[in-house]
Design a protein that fits this description.
The complex is a heterodimer of chains A (342) and B (357). By secondary structure, chain A is mainly alpha-helical. Chain A has a domain of 230 residues: MetI-like (MetI-like fold). Chain A has 13 helices and no strands. In chain A, helix 2 crosses helix 13. The longest helix of chain A is centred in the N-terminal third of the chain and has 40 residues. Chain A is globular. Chain B has 3 domains: 51 residues, no CATH class; 57 residues, SH3 type barrels (Roll); 207 residues, MetI-like (MetI-like fold, Orthogonal Bundle), CATH 1.10.3720. Helix content of chain B is 57%, strand content 12%. In chain B, strands 2, 3, 4, 5, 6 and 7 form a 6-stranded antiparallel β-sheet that branches. Chain B has a two-stranded antiparallel sheet with strand order 1-8. In chain B, a hairpin with a 2-residue loop joins strand 4 and strand 5. In chain B, helix 2 packs across helix 15. The longest helix of chain B has 33 residues. The relative contact order of chain B is 0.09. Classes of the chains: A mainly alpha (342), B alpha+beta (357). At the A-B interface, helix 1, helix 2, helix 4, helix 5 and helix 6 of A face helix 1, helix 2, helix 5, helix 6 and helix 7 of B.
């Protein structure tokens, strides 16, 4: 056994030295280019040279598209190239927001957008609410002195790492008409339900599956928040004779508030952008019962024979505005709660 | 009510099982919750893995069997194919094990393996298949030979490894510049990068697609690798870490005549290794699991990544679940391995940085 360990160690050391050798070789090779450049521009301006690759990719693929998106939102037609697209002003936004009755998507010019918006609203409300509640409960449980806490913590965290497509397929297999969940239902004397083919069931499962997949992440953050609360506060409370419920209300909750706010806003921002899991699990169906905004953007601009890039971009801009408000809200609340604590 | 209240306020440092080592109601609740958690979180994955080893016939059964069961077969007499075995209830009430030659309507033609020449007619409701536990590894091997699965796997590996390396290099270079130099415009650059932290690709799909189209990267893995390489998250993470590296180290290097590039790769990068490792793990997870953007850029099946390929298979009219399930297991395997090896590292990394994997 010991001999084998040393063989493994020696092999690892050999691989390590190999990687190091390649690293040194490559870096020296780049140095052949960078050192003359440094003599040319001087030491201080090297900073821009170091920034250049990242800034280039950033500008071309993030900054420039952000500006161009607004242009797309104000033009129409099926052509991709900007010079082929006629300017239409706010027509795309008008199309998105024209309804005779805003509570009824059927009366809207772009009824799928409104359905998607309404579904996204429902999804965000229940997914964020449910997930934060469950994550908080789980964090509180994990914060107790339990045996094998590390194991349980990683149990709840594991699904976070799975790809959305894998998550959706796992649940699609379980939720099928002939799936294991229906088998349990039948064995308990129930009737099998076509979970993914009935509108309200599909939405409920989409919400539950996304909670299942993401709650571990928020649990981890809340747990870190709980563990940063000084134990002395509880001890002091115990001396003063506070009840456990009181110490939860007056110590745990207020001190956890900043973490809760971060979790709430992060969850909100992610829920508004939800796409992958839902797209693979239900495809937005049945009908458009689980169609969410990002899927609407995808289908309007890409998943169709005659793409309407203008409408897709206008929806993107709208979504971006919502995200911006949420982010600003986070900054505002974050600052507010800090002041409150100080 | 008091039990609930005590449960809500329990914390690390309290004794595990009440005062005299006895189990309190709260302890029972705690472990019941954790047990249910294990079932709910691992159960679906375990069910996926079990199902992926079932034969197609075993898969469509309702109610499903817990373990993968395969029909036992035997070579009988002169029949060229192995025949499926059944337990048959005979007219006199005894049972015998026969092999089925063929089924015609409601009767099955069977033979006794001991006397393979005499065909016995058996009503089909008098026979039950003989099955035993067997793992259908052919689901896995056939996914490789009958589909482009190996191709998807290769594409996913290329995208994940390529994108992670590029992300590490360009993000760390930018972070080095933003943390170790004072120059006009530094704060502006940093602010602009940070302000896009919350801009997801779903908000700029159309224009990024235009850029990719112009560069000629539609149906090209570069089109998936490059756009996400300049992550604001990575720059932020690395810059914050590099700020803690003392500038004096660089100054003494400069006195020794080292070039700026050498300071970067020989002093700063090795010292920033922990932050680089965190970013590397995140990048691997982001890229391996990425779906929406590859779905848009890659439309020809030879360029599909695993995620896009899996989605295409499950969207077919007749879903071949035995292959889809096996490929799903293979897709989650690498992440599961990485996680089980680096579990502690990942969870503490996420808890301290608030970055999502």
């Amino acid at each position: 056994m010991a001999a084998r360990a040393t063989v493994v160690q020696r092999a690892a050391a050999l691989v390590g030295r190999g990687v190091e050798g390649v690293y040194v070789l490559l870096m020296n090779a780049v140095g052949l280019l960078m050192e003359p450049l440094q003599r040319l521009v001087g030491m201080r301006r090297m900073a821009w040279l170091f920034l250049l690759p990242n800034l280039l990719v950033f500008t071309i693929f993030i900054l420039f598209p952000m500006v161009l998106n607004v242009y797309y939102a104000t033009t129409s037609g099926p052509r991709l190239y900007p010079q082929d697209r006629p300017f239409v002003g706010t027509a795309n936004f008008e199309r998105l927001f024209t309804c005779t009755d805003y509570t009824n998507p059927n009366t809207c010019l772009e009824d799928r957008f409104w359905r998607a918006a309404r579904n996204t609203g429902v999804f965000v409300l229940f997914q964020v609410g449910g997930m934060v509640a469950i994550s908080l409960l789980t964090a509180l449980v994990l914060n107790r002195k339990v045996v094998a806490r590390g194991f349980f913590r990683s149990v709840f965290f594991y699904p976070v790492l799975l790809s959305p497509v894998v998550v959706a397929l796992i649940w699609k297999w379980i939720l099928q008409r002939d799936g294991v969940l229906n088998a349990m239902l039948v064995s308990l004397g129930g009737e099998p339900i076509n979970f993914l083919l009935s509108g309200s069931w599909a939405m409920a499962w989409v919400i539950m599956v996304s909670i299942w997949a993401n709650m571990g992440f928020y649990t981890l953050i809340l747990l870190a928040g709980l563990q940063s609360i000084p134990v002395e506060l509880y001890d002091a409370g115990a001396i003063d004779g506070t009840s456990t419920l009181q110490s939860f209300r007056h110590i745990t909750l207020p001190l956890l508030m900043p973490t809760m706010m971060v979790v709430l806003v992060l969850a909100l921002i992610r829920a508004v952008q939800m796409f992958d899991e839902v797209f693979v699990l239900t495809g937005g169906g049945p009908g458009s019962a689980t169609l969410l905004l990002v899927q609407y953007i995808y289908q309007t601009g890409f998943g169709t024979q005659n793409p309407r890039f203008g409408l897709a971009a206008a929806t993107s801009v709208t979504l971006g505005a919502v995200l911006l408000v949420a982010t600003l809200l986070q900054l505002r609340i974050g600052r507010g709660s800090e002041r409150h604590l100080a | 009510m008091t039990a609930v209240a005590r449960f809500l306020t329990r914390r690390q440092g309290d004794r595990p099982h009440g005062r005299r080592g006895r189990w309190t109601v709260t302890d029972v609740l705690t472990y019941a919750y954790l047990g249910a958690g294990v079932l709910v979180m691992f159960g679906p994955v375990a069910w996926l893995v079990l199902s992926s080893f079932k034969t197609p016939a075993n898969l469509i059964e309702f109610p499903p069997t817990l373990l993968p069961l395969a029909h036992d077969t035997a070579l009988v007499g002169d029949y060229p194919q192995p025949l499926p075995l059944y337990d048959v209830v005979l007219e006199d009430g005894t049972t015998a094990r026969f092999a089925q030659v063929r089924r015609i309507g409601l009767t099955a033609q069977m033979v006794d393996p001991a006397a393979p020449d005499d065909i016995i007619a058996v009503p089909i409701d008098q026979r039950t298949p003989v099955r035993s536990f067997r793992l259908a590894f052919e689901n896995y091997t056939e996914s490789f030979t009958r589909f482009n699965f190996a191709r998807y796997l290769r594409n996913s590996v290329v995208v994940t490894v390529g994108a992670t390396l590029i992300t590490l290099v360009i993000n760390s270079m930018a972070a080095f510049a933003l943390s170790k130099y004072r120059f006009p415009g530094r704060n502006l650059v940093f602010l602009v990068i940070i302000s896009t932290l919350m801009i997801p690709i779903s908000v700029i799909l159309v224009p990024v697609y235009l850029v990719i189209n112009q560069v000629g990267w539609v149906n090209n893995l570069w089109g998936v690798i490059i756009p996400g390489a300049a992550t604001p998250t990575g720059v932020f993470l690395l810059r914050q870490y590099m700020l803690t590296i003392p500038d004096e180290l660089l100054d003494s290097g400069r006195i020794d005549g080292a070039s700026e590039w050498r300071l970067y790769w020989q002093i700063v990068l090795p010292l920033a290794a922990p932050a680089l490792a965190v970013l590397a793990i995140f990048s691997v997870m982001w890229r391996w699991n990425d779906f929406l953007w590859p779905l848009i850029v890659l439309t020809r099946s030879e360029f599909f990544t695993l995620q896009v390929g899996l989605n295409a298979f499950q969207g077919e009219l007749q879903v071949q679940w035995h292959y889809v399930l096996a490929m799903t297991v293979l897709t989650l395997l690498p992440i599961t391995l990485v996680f089980s090896l680096l579990q502690r590292f990942i969870t503490t990394g996420i808890a301290s940085t608030g970055v999502k994997g």
